[in-house]
Design a protein that fits this description.
Layout (H helix, E strand, L loop, with lengths): L1 E7 L3 E8 L3 E13 L4 E2 L8 E6 L5 E7 L2 E8 L3 E9 L11 E10 L6 H5 L3 H72 L4
Antiparallel strand pairs: 1-9, 2-8, 3-4, 3-7, 3-9, 5-6, 5-8
């Protein structure tokens, strides 16, 4: 996931990532501040940092840390579900005068393990093959976890759909019985009325 978004200097912005359990998440961010004179976003925002907060689906805080204008944050998901990742600048200005617009560049990689190329080049060929093999095995484990998570979600969705269909069927049967009962009652009431008025 690579994107950028605009926020106010004192504003908090959150995104939601659906992450399988036991998955490493690596995020890179860069902050740019709008410059009124140049009418553009500056490449760096000195002294301006970002609070990054990550909350699990059970509302447990997995990460809460202040980073600089550029930084890398990592966390590991312990349970499957929607994790909330929030960003807020460390500006100390009052909300009335903190009118600067910020652009946040964000790159989030879920479950990826990147090889340290410098470390690989420094070792012999056997170690290089071992490191690459371990990396491939980790990626296979990650793909397996993601597939299991998707299967769980699909099964949950199927159960919900079946329960909904069953409820709709029973509601239709109940409605039909109510309509038949009301119809029989109306016919009986009309018949009694006509008999009492000696119209039949």
């Amino acid at each position: 996931l690579a994107l950028y978004f605009h926020i106010g200097e004192r504003e908090e912005k959150c995104i939601i990532e659906d992450i399988p359990s036991d998955t490493l998440v690596v995020g890179n961010h860069k902050v740019q501040r709008w410059d009124l004179h140049m009418r553009d976003f500056l490449e760096s925002a000195p002294g301006l940092g970002m609070f990054v907060t990550v909350t699990s689906p059970t509302s447990e805080v997995l990460l809460s840390k202040l980073y600089g204008p550029q930084g890398t944050f990592t966390f590991t998901s312990y349970i499957s579900g929607e994790h909330i990742i929030c960003f807020q600048s460390n500006s100390t200005r009052f909300a009335v005068i903190a009118g600067s617009k910020l652009r946040i560049h964000l790159d989030i990689r879920v479950g990826e393990h990147f090889l340290d190329e410098s470390g690989i080049q420094a070792k012999d060929k056997v170690n290089e093959v071992n490191i690459r093999l371990e990396n491939l095995i980790e990626q296979i484990h990650h793909v397996t976890r993601e597939q299991e998570y998707e299967r769980e979600r699909e099964e949950k969705f199927r159960k919900t759909s079946e329960e909904t269909n069953s409820n709709i069927l029973w509601w239709a049967i109940v409605q039909t019985l109510i309509l038949i009962s009301v119809g029989i009652w109306q016919i009986k009431s009309l018949r009694d009325f006509f008999i009492s008025k000696k119209l039949v």
